[in-house]
Protein: Radical SAM/CxCxxxxC motif protein YfkAB
Amino acid sequence: MLKRQPVEKKPISPAWDPWDAWYTRSEKSFYELTSVEFTVTNLCNLRCEHCAVGEALVEKEGSPLPVDQLIRRLDEVETLQTLSITGGEPVLHPRVVNETIRPLLRYAKERGIYTQLNSNLTLPLSRYEDWIEDLDVLHISYNYRDAHDFYRIAFQKYGKEVSLSAAETLFERMKENARTLSKNGVFVSAESLLSPFTAQHIVKMHRDIAEMGCRRHEVHPLYPSDFAKGMTLLTLDEYRSTILRLLDGRDPNVWILFGTLPFFPCSDKQEDLDLWLRLHREENVTVRQDPDGRNRLNINAFTGDVIVTDFGDVPPLGNMMHDRLTEIFHRWLEHPVAKKHHCFCREAHCAGPNILVSHAYYRDWDFTTRKAKAEVRV
Structure:
């Protein structure tokens, strides 16, 4: 491992979201690799109906690549700022925690890199306590009103019988874990995927997230991938009205981050432009420019395959066993799919669409030929 002087990290806030692709693109006029995500397991104790990686989940899996190999590739990326860890449920298997997660977090901490781990937070609190201090963001999913919703959603695709009481135990543990960790200073960020079901109850879900002590509420579209492919998506009109209800009913002390937002400042509809401007004027509300393929790559820690996102349909771009990550990233920037979606409007504070959102809602649009009709001052 190369010896570097750690960079002092600014606190994560609405004014500084190090995963956002906007900063590098606006400052340097090009994209560079600042973020890497590792898929460290395909095991999970849940099978959520909306899971965008559900078809990759397994009952048993082999050994991951040695963590030293992962770190050597990270060491080659001089521009690295953030490291994300996802699955499956990364914390499910103690071996993954001890042999992969903890060394990666220690490496990132020594180098001054921001870290995030995605967990369903349903495991006993002791499974998190001995490494959580090295983590910057604990990312959880929250798409439920109560234990009955959790039972239906989390075990929809499970394939074997699970009792309601068992589901209730996991649901209550998740909420209590979030409260305890938040009280102890952990930055817990809860994500909700907007679907025809969650849209009806999003204000209540937001209030529950605030009660759990989460500092941030991330709101994303339902991604039509894997388990979620057959689910009904919100129309854009439904999505817009849901956002407006959430803005009107939100807890102003909780940061709301809209990720992969399916509205753009080059829209032909005035209501879309009005929404875009409101989102950029509201206190404690941000719109994150999509990191996937703009400043981030995902690495499968078992095969070494490198892809644009952990739930996209673009085939692997290379393999970390024989390719440098920066070479793979530049290869992606020349890919026709990247060129189709990598538009940029500085005045409108927009770096274009997420690929899945584009395919779901804007198949007929060529974003590279459109012009922004709204100007944002940030």
